[in-house]
Design a protein that fits this description.
single chain; alpha/beta; Rossmann fold; seven-stranded parallel sheet; 8 helices; 7 strands; about 15% strand; binds guanosine-5'-diphosphate; binds magnesium ion
Amino acid sequence: MAVDKSAKAARGTVQCENTTLHLLKANDFVADSIRKEMSEKNILVINMVSSAGSGKTTLLQETGRRLKDELNIKILVGDVETERDADRLRDVGIDALQIATGGICHLEAQMIVQGMEGLDLEGTDVLIIENVGNMVCPASYDLGEDYRVSLIATTEGDDKPKKYPKMFLTSDVMVISKADLLPHLPFSVEAVTNDALEINHQLKVIEVSSLNGDGVDAWSQWIKDKVAEKKEVLVG
Ligand SMILES: Nc1nc2c(ncn2[C@@H]2O[C@H](COP(=O)(O)OP(=O)(O)O)[C@@H](O)[C@H]2O)c(=O)[nH]1
Ligand SMILES: [Mg+2]
C-alpha cells in the first residue's frame, strides 16, 4: 500500500496517560484544610493562573493601588526563582510574600500552608495567590481557593483555550490582558471568548489593560463583590 509521506499527511497524536493522580489526591486533602481554615478566618482566596509574562504581577500592582485603602490584601507569589515579583508588589504597598518553588512548575497546597505561616493574616479580607507562570501544571493543583482566575494576554494568540482547556475549565474568570495592544495584533476577543465559553460556559470574561487602566476598575469591583459575598455567607 502506498504511504503518503507528504508533510501534511495526518500521522495521529501520541496520547499520554496522567500518572500523577495519587499526588493530586494528597494535594486536595491539604487544599480542603486551607479552604476550611480560610472560611473560619473569613478570608477570600483567589488563585491566579496563566503563562509567564501574561501580566499577572502588573495587574496585581494596579489592583493593589486601587484597593489597598479599602481592603486588607495579602499576596503569595510563586516563581521558580527570585523575589522580584514580591518586591514589585511591596513597592506599591501590598504585603506580599514570595514562594520560590526551586524548579517546580506550579504551586502546591502545602506551599500555600507554609506561605500562610509567613503572613500576618489577622484582619485580612483577601489572599491572592499568583501562581507560577504556565498554562499546564497549575491547572491541576487545588490551592484551597474560592475562585480561580486565568489570564490570557493578547500577545499569546487567541488559540490557547482549546490547546490548554483544563486551565479554562477549572477557572471562574478569564481575564483578557494587554487589551491596549489589540489594535496591533491578530487576536480576536470574540474567538477566544467563544472557545473558552465552549469549554466552560460559566466563565466570566473581563478585558483589561494594566497599561492604560481600561477594565481594571471592573476587575477590582469583582474582587470587592466577592469579598462582600464571602462575608455575607458567614453572617447569614
Ligand atoms: N502593553 C502591555 N504590557 C503589559 C500589560 N501588563 C503587563 N505588561 C507587560 O508584560 C510584561 C510581563 O508582565 P508581568 O506582570 O511581569 O507578567 P507575569 O509574568 O504574568 O506576572 C511586562 O513587561 C509588563 O510591563 C498591559 O496591560 N499592556
Ligand atoms: Mg509575575
